[in-house]
Design goal:
The protein is of the alpha/beta class. It contains 18 helices and 31 strands. Bound molecules: coenzyme A and adenosine monophosphate. Coenzyme A (COA) binds next to β9 and α12.
Length: about 625
């Protein structure tokens, strides 16, 4: 089949408003828009201004009313607990209403924030939908973050309530969540008035009378209560999702209701080639944007079936888990991160586990979250036997900036490229002066404003930070923070970040945030954290520290303390395992630490002596320290 991509992209470019107005017909609106796009509001304009709708109605109620009541909405498969369950759209509606009733009784109303700090259990999705139903705003925080990170988010979002579970289960480890949450609330200045806890059989959380509630009991007590969907403006926030910024303070990415529903619904067929009623599985976590968009919202908005998987690609119990799930639930479209495939490939290089399962229901395997390295893509193509489709996006956009649109007809796959810009995105490769680079030449990747529906209209309570972070450097364009090139066929190649963000096992982390933690150690004078290439996780953080003069404690003890400090302050997800003490850090004459050169040395890449270096001999010391510790080999 010839791809309709070029024609559809052109139709968007010719008339973006007509394109999105057509796509918006797939969403139920309680009030139509006054303008498809209002260029006068917000830092760069707003989509569907004047319109009203409710995201939960679109994701749940209308499917129950429209004949999908008995269709499975959510499949829960938890190899770590041995539990499997199926929740129909009718049952989902009942649970969402009961949860919404409990939240409303605790005072949660339109515009209020609710933090969801949950492992991969269906209650996480139910809580998100219940919050959306009330016209309130959720902020899901990934379970791998430490109390201090959670506290930062509590203070920024100022939630009225928090929904959590008694524990998460990571492989064989049971991690009690409630003590972490209690600690976070005690650190935070803002105090939520209510906490709802899903009590799991593995750990019973201690509830604080007056503030804490047993969520399961509250849901049962409120079964059967009708809680209507509260109409909100299309431009009202549906959620805030915090992501790493260039400083330790996370950025609260705001997603609005209307544009999000329109764009995500558009992607289910056009990008992923899925039909309503089919099973779509994103093996991510609700704490990340992939989990928001493709575990929760897009499949449900579209009337498909989604899977909540509580496990890992390997070790729960073996590298055949993904393929078992695909066989068992007849998954048609599967989305994971390259790092997960690398983990499977390492344990099952010849695909022996794969051969045990019938995965013939699968039509496409989608990859995102980090660069899909050609070796991994080739391995997957050979063993999984379906098109392997890389696509590139960010927390900020909520859906693919570039991809290979299955529904419009696949374009030829080029390994190492997420293919072409999706309708809505006018992507340019530029130099620092905003001059377009020639095809094949590396530059900063920017997107011409306005961004399409679903992309962040701003940061939570931080318009200025939004403009400073994304709009100021390239006037009229959104700065993605990624660098790469476009080839002669218009294919994009995403090669690196232009800021201090590193990508560890598909998780986006700020080295600046880790440096702030290292610098807080009383014995550390200065430090630098870089991302070092890692075979499985893509990158791993590595810290270099210079100790204060007169420190008598031995370096090895301090290094261990630093590793524990990052784990305690940021969380296990930072995967910070190596701190190296050095005498000096390499700097330019103006005092800037040469992190880029340090990274090249650690990755054993070729590097040139920076012309502005203050003392060239420091690099030899760094090289020796790296060699001594066996980094990057
Ligand atoms: N709650 C608490 N802790 C968590 C957690 C969670 N939800 N998720 C991860 N952690 C912990 C892990 O247990 C680990 O702790 P440890 O240092 O005590 O072992 C640490 O955070 C690092 O986790 P991770 O980077 O996931 O490493 P891993 O070795 O446990 O697993 C992979 C490696 C490749 C299997 C795993 O990273 C993976 O499945 N990655 C895919 C990522 C993904 O889907 N990203 C979403 C973008 S699409
Ligand atoms: P996150 O906001 O956590 O989804 O991370 C977004 C960042 O991950 C992007 O800005 C890229 O740096 C990286 N990324 C995501 N998907 C891809 C991809 N397909 N190819 C290359 N990099 C990617």
């Amino acid at each position: 089949m010839t791809s309709r991509y070029a024609e559809v992209y052109q139709s968007w470019k010719t008339d973006p408003e007509a394109f999105w107005a057509e796509a918006a017909k797939a969403v139920d609106w309680s009030k139509p828009w006054d303008q498809v796009f209002d260029p006068t509001s917000g830092p760069y304009g707003r989509w569907f201004a004047g319109a009203e709708m409710n995201t939960c109605h679109n994701a749940v109620d209308r499917h129950v009313a429209g004949g999908r009541a008995e269709q499975t909405a959510i499949i829960y498969d938890s190899p770590v607990t041995g539990v499997k369950a199926k929740i129909t759209y009718a049952e989902l509606l009942s649970r969402v209403q009961a949860t919404a009733a409990a939240l409303a009784d605790a005072g949660v109303a339109k515009g209020d924030r609710v933090i969801v700090y949950m492992p991969m259990v269906p209650e996480a999705l139910v809580a998100m939908l219940a919050v959306a139903r009330l016209g309130a705003i959720h902020s899901v925080v990934f379970g791998g973050f430490a109390p201090r990170e959670l506290a930062t988010r509590i203070d920024d979002a100022k939630p009225k309530a928090i929904v959590t579970a008694s524990c998460g289960i990571e492989g064989k480890k049971v991690l009690p969540y409630k003590p972490l949450l209690d600690e976070a609330i005690s650190i935070a200045t803002h105090k939520p008035t209510a906490v709802f806890v899903t009590q799991r059989p593995q750990v019973e959380a201690v509830l604080q009378p007056g503030r804490d509630h047993d969520l399961g009991a509250a849901v049962e007590a409120n079964r059967g209560r009708a809680v209507p969907c509260v109409a909100v403006k299309a431009t009202d926030p549906l959620y805030i999702l915090y992501t790493s910024g260039t400083t330790g303070a996370p950025k609260g990415v705001v997603r609005d209701n209307g544009g999000h529903a329109v764009a995500l619904t558009w992607t289910m067929f056009n990008h992923y080639g899925i039909q309503p009623g089919e099973v779509f599985w994103a093996a991510s976590d609700v704490g990340w944007v992939v989990g928001h968009s493709y575990i929760c919202y897009a499949p449900l908005l579209y009337g498909a079936t989604t899977i909540v998987f509580e496990g890992k690609p390997v070790g729960t119990p073996d590298p055949g888990t993904f393929w078992r799930i695909i066989e068992e639930y007849k998954v048609a479209g599967f989305f994971t991160a390259p790092t997960a495939l690398r983990a499977i490939k390492k344990e099952d290089p010849n695909g022996e586990f794969l051969k045990k399962y019938d995965i013939s229901s699968l039509r496409n395997l989608f990859l995102a979250g980090e660069r899909a390295d050609p070796d991994t893509v080739k391995w997957a193509e050979e063993h999984v036997g379906v098109p392997v489709i890389d696509h590139w996006w960010q927390t900020e956009t909520g859906w693919a900036i570039a991809g290979n649109p299955v529904g419009l007809g696949l374009l030829p796959v080029k390994h190492g490229s997420p293919t072409v810009p999706m309708p809505g995105y006018d992507v340019r490769i530029v130099d620092d002066g905003l001059h377009e680079m020639k095809r094949g030449e590396m530059g900063s990747i920017v997107i011409k404003l306005p961004l399409p529906p679903s992309c962040l209209p701003t940061l939570w309570n931080a318009d200025k930070r939004f403009e400073d972070s994304y709009l100021i450097d390239f006037p009229g364009y959104y700065k993605t923070g990624d660098a790469g090139f476009m080839d002669d066929d218009g294919y994009l190649f995403i090669m690196a970040r232009t800021d201090d963000i590193i990508n560890v096992a598909g998780h986006r982390l700020s080295t600046g945030g880790m440096e702030e933690v290292l610098a807080s150690h009383p014995d550390v004078a200065e430090c630098a954290v870089i991302g070092v290439h890692d075979e499985m996780k893509g990158q791993m953080p590595c810290g270099f520290v210079v100790l204060k003069a007169g420190v008598t404690k031995d370096a090895e003890t301090i290094e261990k303390e630093l590793v524990s400090l990052v784990r305690a302050k940021i969380g296990a997800v930072a995967a910070f395992k190596v701190a190296i003490t050095v005498d000096r850090l390499p700097k330019t004459r103006s005092g800037k630490i040469l992190r880029g050169t340090m990274q090249k040395i650690a990755d054993h890449e070729s590097w040139n002596m920076p012309a502005t270096i203050d003392d060239a001999s420091v690099l030899a010391e760094i090289e020796a320290a790296i060699r001594e510790r066996g980094i990057g080999v």
